[in-house]
Amino acid sequence: MARASRPLRERARETDVAEEPRAAAWLRNFRLSGFALSMLLLVVAALVVLAPSLKTFVEQQQQIAQLRAEVEAAQTDVDDLNAEIDRWSDPAYIEAQARDRLYYVYPGDITFLVIGDDDLPGEGGLPISDEIQTTQVDWVRALLSTVYEAGLTDAAPAQLESPEQGG
Q1: φ, ψ of residue 136 in degrees (nearest 5)
Q2: Residue-wise over 103-132: b if at least 16 C-beta within 10 A, else e?
Q3: Do 160 and 153 contact (CB within 8 A), yes or no?
Q4: pTM of the model
Q5: pLDDT string in tens for the chain (167-residue length)
Q6: Full domain range(s) for residue 98
Q7: Within a domain: 60
């Protein structure tokens, strides 16, 4: 019976509110007081004042991270160079480098320098001899014949390549 005693206008208002979305109803009932307005302005002012500082802080943190990575890379290079210095302070390493890079030998040593070790005879090739042999090739004539053939041939450049140069 309480429903029937309420005026018709209130019942119509309840049905309108129920049909209205909740956000719209909240905004319609929202009252802005002086205190709320001043707090809202303070929050906006704080954001305006702090935003550039926050941006600067983030940029500085990125720069610090980048500089730390560069310091780590430089420290790795320093460690490598210190290891290289330690190697070069060892007389055995210096001797090995002089023998390998500069072909230094001690007096009385017999050394052999193999040029083009990919042409060494393997299985099925000529046997390796322990005697010194001389070749019967005239290198001047071979060079001149190569130049003469390259200048007068009609073959394409790909056909003139040696097997070692070709892909």
Answers
A1: -105, 25
A2: eeeeeeeeeeeeeeeeeeeeeeeeeeeeee
A3: yes
A4: 0.38
A5: 455 555 555 555 555 545 667 777 777 777 778 888 888 899 999 888 888 888 899 999 999 999 999 999 999 999 999 999 999 999 999 999 998 888 888 888 888 877 776 655 555 666 777 787 777 778 888 889 888 887 888 877 777 776 665 44
A6: 51-111
A7: yes
